[in-house]
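Record type: ASSEMBLY
Status: queued
Input:
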Amino acid sequence: MPADVAARCRIEIAGLRKSFLAEGREVVAVDDASFRIHDGEFVALLGPSGCGKSTILNMVATLITPNGGDIRVDDAPVIPGRPIPQVGYVFQKDTLFPWRTVEGNIGYALELAGVPAAERRGRVDQAIHQAGLDGFARFYPSSLSGGMRQRVSLMRTLIAQPEILLMDEPFGALDTHTKLDMHSVLLDLWEHTRQTVLFVTHDLGEALTLADRIILMSARPGRVKQDFKVDFARPRDAVTLRETPQYAELFSRIWHSLGEEFAKGRSV
Amino acid sequence: MRRLSTLLWQVAIGLAALAIWQWGWQLHDTLPWLVPDLLDPYFVSRPSDIYQQFLRMGCLVSSDGQWTWDEAGAFARCIGKSDNNLWIATYYTLKNTLWGFAIGVSSGFALGLLLGRSDRLSEIFYPYITAFNSIPRIALAPIIILAFGIGDASKIVTAWLVVVFLVFFNTFEGARSVDRDHINAARLLGAGEWQVTRTVIVPSTMAWLFASLTPAVSFSLIGVIVGEFIGAEHGIGRMIIEAEARGEAAGMMVAVFVLMIVGVILASIVRRVQAYLLRWRPAQTIGTT
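Status: finished
Output:
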């Protein structure tokens, strides 16, 4: 892939390993995982649940300390507990601050950075508009639907304009239609900014819709099994893409390989 | 329909209770097994007497039985006659209750936050705090009067003692149960240690603090009244003790009635403030705290 060679490497993972103690026994969640992600790439980390894909993401995000191996972001080693300024993270769980309104949540990162109120308001209004949340600025998260909350979460992270975006099954808890809707929102936003994305999911359709590349993980202990290139034209349409023959073809190729891992995951 | 019938029942029960209180004693001689001795007006007075006494103690009626607003200056003259009439007493009790509440809540919150977020400090201090907490605070009131005198300070300190632990334990629990994901989210969005404290730990602990405010204001009032029982120059508690010494049941009842009004008003103000500050919570949980 000559294009990738030319592009700057943003995330580099080499020989990454993580094990947990569960009821006195050591469980290896991630074993010798290695891959690189280049500038502007949208990469999906795909695998059955329990394969350690979220663990890898959380290690990159400095939330979990690895047992071995190397993580480098922009050539600098990642130090657990010390967040990297150019990295944004979107949680699987709803982590909006319930005591802040929609605009309060979205503007949070700007507040921390000391952006003046007038500029902040402008950027927050724009973000609210981009996420299709017009009219909800003064609402508290408790009165929003799951899909709307996840849009707020997304904008809360994106407003700081992170160059690298880590997403941990952000739409995992949403129903199919809301999920498709969120894919359109995300694709739209990403078309404009083209940041580097590492997106964890167990949903092959989601991975194909969004990503340029799919890294398929094996069942526990998690290893990188295969690397697929997803070269559908952009900009993509989250709904009609699924009806194209290329989509069907790639889907069935990966589906077969993913199915083996699901089966293995069940037998352990 | 249902609300109307509830209201009717409430009014009916209230009127029945007042009627028994007013006239029940008259049946004592004929039906001694039905009317308990406690209904003796010597102990509990009668609603009509209490009403008259209230008018006199509140200087709404002067000693000669005239409405004070019929004559210019009569109200002021009546007020000037005593240094612990109903108005002055209520003022002192209310003032000390609010001070005790304010100081108790702020110090309890600060302490709870500090110990709740520091494992080291809570480890060291926890046995002392639990030991202290098992002392009925009211038992310390005489010592406090001895130390702080019979003025306002001793009442405020007694109220503070009662409030501070309640608020402390609530805040402590709240500070320990701050959602880790909220803290992580804040960190990943660029918050430093102090910013995490200010923007995540304090607001999410506040929810627990607010839940303790309604009992705290009632407790503060209890603390002040007990302090006034033991030694005071002013206040409703003092008024009750004086009326008791004179064997005036009606006077005691007026004081108790005023305390009830004060308690209801304070609690409803705190509840309103609390509901406003917790408006971000889902609607169904606002009422339960």
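Annotation: Chain B touches chain A at residues 179, 181-182, 184-191, 195, 199-200, 203-204, 206-207, 279-283 (CB under 8 Å).
Annotation: Residues 284-289 of chain B have pLDDT under 50 and may be disordered.
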